[in-house]
Amino acid sequence: MTFININSKERRPVFLLFIMFFATVAASITGSAVRDAVFLIQFDRSFLPVMYILIAMVMAGVITVYKKYTSSQDRVSLITISGLLFSVSLLFFQSNLSGWMIPVFYVWMEIITVFSILQFWLLAGEVFNPRQAKRIFPLVIAGGSFAGMGAGYSIKPFVEVYGSENLLYMTIFFIGLSVVISQQVRPFRIGGQGELDQSDMLVNKQKIKFDPYLKAIALMVACSAFISKIIDYQFKIMAATEFPTQNELLNFFGAYYMATGAATLMMQIFVSGFILTRFGILAGLLVLPLTLA
What we know:
It is found in: Membrane. The chain crosses the membrane at residues 14-34, 46-66, 78-94, 100-124, 136-155, 167-185, 255-288. Belongs to the ADP/ATP translocase tlc family. It comes from marine metagenome. It is a single chain. This protein is mostly helical. It has one domain (2-292). It contains 11 helices and no strands. It has helices at 11-42, 48-70, 75-95, 101-127, 130-162, 168-185, 198-210, 212-242, 246-279, 281-286, 288-292. It is globular. The relative contact order is 0.15.
């Protein structure tokens, strides 16, 4: 079965990346659940569309700065430093989450999520070459689906015992776990794209720049992202109306993430591979509108 086709030398780095991605996604899920519940219950919901626009503007600037100043830095060191920064900042928000700190936290949690996942995949690209990645990454990605199920399931009992105001401690724990695992991944790095010489890289850049097929895919992804935000807005407003207390809303988000994690895992195992292998990438992209329906 190609889904688990790994050799003996690949087992440990695959296992470490699986756990690291599990921790990264679990941190994103628990932190996002707190962010959404606090904003929808304690702040003016009419500002939610403004938050989407603000996040897009902030992320554009932050990513530009990140690429400019970190392109030559050690990836594991960046993960460690950013993990420490994220953890300390969440401790601050834990005791100051009120008033206008709520929308600030909303944007900051999105930055944490995006950069944590971005840095994970950049590190994963330094562990396996492109040929290995095609075979191994589906297994690593499954760690995110298991995180959805595990973290989603754990939110309700955690909130019942410790309260919704303490759920960020779980987020901090998972961020710390991902940092610890990244240190274990360090010896397995091979430089990612080191197998490509300069001429290959130049050809690839030219192909990416002028290939209309890639431009069409980029346009479809952008449209999907725009539509998903509209659906996300409607979903959150309906959820906040149906579950008027913070604990109830957090419990609902936990159940939702658990269900979507299980559904995603089933899609990865039984549907995605079959569609891409049998019908190609275009058919896989054409399925996206059906999933939105």
